[in-house]
Amino acid sequence: MTDVTITGGPSLPQERKLVTSIPGPKSQELLARKNAAVASGVGVALPVFTVAAGGGVMIDADGNSLIDLGSGIAVTGVGNSAPAVVDAVKKQVEQFTHTCFTVTPYDGYVEVAEKLNAITPGDHEKRSALFNTGAEAVENAIKIARHYTKKNAVVVFDHAYHGRTNLTMGMTAKNMPYKDGFGPFAPEIYRVPTSYPFRDGLSGAEAAKVALTQIEKQVGVANLAAIIIEPIQGEGGFIAPAEGFLPALQEWATRNGVVFILDEVQTGFARTGDLFAANHEGVVPDLMTLAKGIAGGLPLSAVTGRAEIMDSAHAGGLGGTYTGNPIACAAALATIETYETENLTERAREIGAIIEEFFAELQKDDDRIGEIRGRGAMMAVEFVESGSKAPNAALTGAIAKYAGEQGVVLLTCGTYGNVVRFLPPLSISDELLRDGLQVVADAITAAA
Ligand SMILES: *Cc1c(COP(=O)(O)O)cnc(C)c1O
Predict the structure, then answer these.
(1) 445 CA distance to ligand 1 centroid (A)?
(2) Which of 75, 274, 334, 423 would disulfide-bridge 88, Cβ 3.0–4.6 Å?
(3) Taking residues 377-393, what's their average pLDDT?
């Protein structure tokens, strides 16, 4: 353990402050131990070891205060160690830590299910089932859709990311680092083109026609259990489909008795400026997968959807030892309440506006900024070679490296590795956000 003991949460000084180079000596020492003890496949983006975090900062083992523009991949939307979450977890951990809900149940799980049924899109009757991770939620959504339809085929999209388990690896598009050498993958997964306006130039209706024609010709409606798509693709590059694409898919799925699943694991819970990204386009999925932002950093995920589909699986068919852990449920209830009481959907829109405006200004003088896109506090910049749309992964990597060295935790993404993504906690201040963005601007200039 390190000798630094600090309490996290929003009362931490909200400042970027470097007292050593990044990573500092203590982080380097811990990194050496990590490399000797932890499997190499578990890589790290920025080797600073965290000792406390909150608001918009992370404190590392050397006492550096870094700006967090990643929220641990869109998880700590309410902020790290958010006071309401800390209180709820403390209370629950002192009551009981585990029973296994499918052995003897408890009310926290039921309350989370009730809450999710109430706040997700659509006013039809719903049921929820809780799990631990996003991948597990996706796996279960597919299980449920197959059981309900008695069909096998599942359609996924180019640039999709759905997780790292065997089924979800096969559903994920990108080979390195997610799939390479880890096969064989599960059968009956079919990939079709998505809507990527910056690169395909198609309208939503045109892109949907391409995808649906391919499904009809290559998969066959009679074989198809489900279509699953992220409303804004996350790891694939924060690709927001052209308007009308998602409604066209949904309409087709409904007409053909195919279960339409939205994977809102990354987009969910206020991140995009609405509680769910589906709401921006008025799309009502049959099933939804939820995780990341759901419980303030505790591991919890869910499938929520139409009662008749969710109830099709027999008792004992869904579950797991830890699924819907009581501490994670208590954290989820506090987290969801915090999104509401602190009006964090509005805050996400404000954060998005600041990021968009900032890069729109830079883009005027720098044609390597190919596109600025996203919604709310889920924004991205796609970098290209000057004068073309060729992906510029070298620049993107250089920006993330520079930002890390200057005390900004910045994530990249994209099938071509050329997208910088911004996922700040919604508890970040304007001042801190602008300081972080300026570091990114300096990084872009430095890489000229
Ligand atoms: C992160 C992610 C997953 C996988 O979630 P894990 O909790 O890492 O298993 C699935 N779908 C989407 C859209 C994601 O962003």
Answers:
(1) 33
(2) 334
(3) 97
Q: Is the CB of 138 under 6 A from ligand 1?
A: yes
Q: What mean pLDDT, rounded, does the chain reach?
A: 97
Residue located via tokens 């719903």: 126
Q: Which of 420, 393, 383, 390 is nearest to 404 (CA)?
A: 420
How far is the centre of ligand 1, averaged over its atoms, from the C-alpha of 162 (Å)?
5
pLDDT-based confidence at residue 1 (cuts at 50, 70, 90): very low
pTM of the model: 0.97
User: Is the minimum distance from the CB of 370 to ligand 1 under 6 angstroms?
Assistant: no
Q: Where are the domains of the chain?
A: 25-81+343-446, 84-341
- H or E segment to which residue 146 belongs: helix 134-149
Nearest CA to ligand 1 atom 6: 134
135 CA closest ligand 1 atom index: 9
Angle at 184 between CA 183 and CA 190, to 5 degrees: 105
pLDDT in tens, 343-370: 999 999 999 999 999 999 999 999 999 9
Atom 10 in ligand 1: which residue has the minimum CA distance? Answer: 162
The 3-class SS string of 375-397 reads ECCEEEEEEECCCCCCECHHHHH
The CATH number that domain 84-341 falls under is 3.40.640.10
Q: Is 139 in the pocket of ligand 1 (CB under 6 A)?
A: no
Amino acid at 291: A
Q: Does the C-beta of 265 come closer than 6 Å to ligand 1? A: yes
Best residue among 292, 322, 419 to mutate for probing ligand 1, ranked by most atoms within 8 Å of CB: 292
pLDDT of 3: 55
At the topology level, CATH places domain 25-81+343-446 in Aspartate Aminotransferase, domain 1 (3.90.1150)
Q: What DSSP element (H or E) covers 93? A: helix 83-95
Q: Could you tell me which of 63, 70, 56, 16 has the C-alpha nearest to residue 442?
A: 16
SS3 per residue for 277-336: HHHHHCCCCCEEEECHHHCCCCCCEEEEEEHHHHCCCCCCCCCCCCCCCHHHHHHHHHHH
Which residue has the CA at smallest separation from atom 5 of ligand 1?
Answer: 134
Residue 253 is classified by DSSP as: H
For ligand 1, whether the C-beta of 375 sits within 6 Å is: no
Instruction: Please choose from 42, 75, 138, 179 the residue to mutate so as to test ligand 1's pocket, defined by most ligand atoms within 8 A of CB.
Output: 138
